[in-house]
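dumping the sequnces here before i forget
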Amino acid sequence: MDKVDAIIVGGGLAGLTAAYHLATAGRQVILLERGDAPGSKNVTGGRIYVDPIKDYLPGIIAEAPFERHVVKEIITVLDDDASVQLEYANDRWRSEPYMSYTVLRATFDGWLAEKVSEKGAFVIPKKKVDDLLWEEDRVVGIKAGDEEIGAHIVIAADGALSFMAEKAGLRKPLEPRNYAVAIKEIYRLDEKTIDDRFGLQPGEGTANLFVGAITRGMFGGGFLYTNRDTLSLGIVVGIGDLIQQKDPVAASLLMEEFAARPEVQRWIRGGELKEYAAHIISEAGAGGIPKLYTGGMLVAGDAAGFSLNLGLTVRGMEFAVASGAIAAGVADEALAKGDLSAAFLSRYEQKLKESFVLSDMETFRHARDVLENKRLFTVYPKFLSELLAALFTIGKGKKEPLYTSAKAAVRKYILNWEGCKDLFSVRKM
Ligand SMILES: Cc1cc2nc3c(=O)[nH]c(=O)nc-3n(C[C@H](O)[C@H](O)[C@H](O)COP(=O)(O)OP(=O)(O)OC[C@H]3O[C@@H](n4cnc5c(N)ncnc54)[C@H](O)[C@@H]3O)c2cc1C
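..and the predicted 3d for all of it:
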């Protein structure tokens, strides 16, 4: 069978970055993407941090079509009928080099795909890969419909559900607890309205996270990012919790309820709903990382479980870019040496350990254990809401000293065995 140097399955950030580096190194690369175009099937919140990826997309990242640089973080904790909002703004984030940007994947991935094509790689959309081709214990290509294409190396960058990694025997079938489902809407709103409504200068953006009653006690939360002339609004809910509900509620209904909350309406009011998407996110952290290589194949990005939710920050795009670049580097070395064995390709894992990818995944290995604590979505929002209600309310009779009101709320919600355990568990982060 004729073989190209490399086939990349999936045209998201991991696959495109891998293709970019291999094509830059002069390798023959075919990237197959099942969507109508790179970016068309890709969903993110989303915000991307620039420093971690600068070295993995050298030269071109400065031209990337980002939306707005983030200067403000807003966290909203919601009870059923009350909410507390914390806003953190930092003047340092207002000047270049900016720390992070909001991003729309259709634009960003489309731009990166252009760069990849300019380097000489073939980016083929509307092509779904169905299977892997094997010679003994080594992957030697892919099958798409009736077509078979041989390759010295295959890089699986086919996203969170990675059927390629499963077919290669590198990971087990989906375990609901390890995944969340996300629903995302994009609202069009003119640039000036976004600036005024969020208190931003032109070009500046906010990242807003929501936690509490919106997920009805299930693991998850909401997000709202300001793009240039759109808003990205979404909700994320743990699949394990969703399927164990006594009174099942669909994620789409939670999204409707979330969008109808006054705390959200104040931002999206008057916006025209432009897009609606659903997507899966890996929430397993380091515990969900599969085996990352086999003879003739490497796994990168979400396909490798590289995403990290710390509650305050959500990261996956940087891991996708970095792991795609590292996979390409190892593939290039393997091609130069003519050694595509699993033994040689194991250096991919070593290089990921030396980078922030596996290092950060390992540092925050226990984040999921802390974040899936149901009290975060029920008890603590109620505590904040009751505490502030007690402090701010003036009724008919005598008002208690503020300390007494605060002590009552703390006693009711925090000073107990569960609260103690939560405090200890936070040390795991
Ligand atoms: C709602 C949501 C919010 C998020 N928020 C953030 C955020 O704010 N910041 C952040 O950094 N990360 C965030 N993430 C995570 C981030 O989006 C992902 O980590 C990142 O997109 C992973 O990129 P990837 O290239 O590995 O996978 P993907 O972007 O999923 O790309 C995989 C590609 O493979 C293609 N594909 C799949 N199967 C096949 C096949 N058989 N044949 C051909 N093509 C195939 C798909 O069509 C897709 O284009 C969020 C994710 C979601 C869902």
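The two ends are 50 Å apart (CA to CA).
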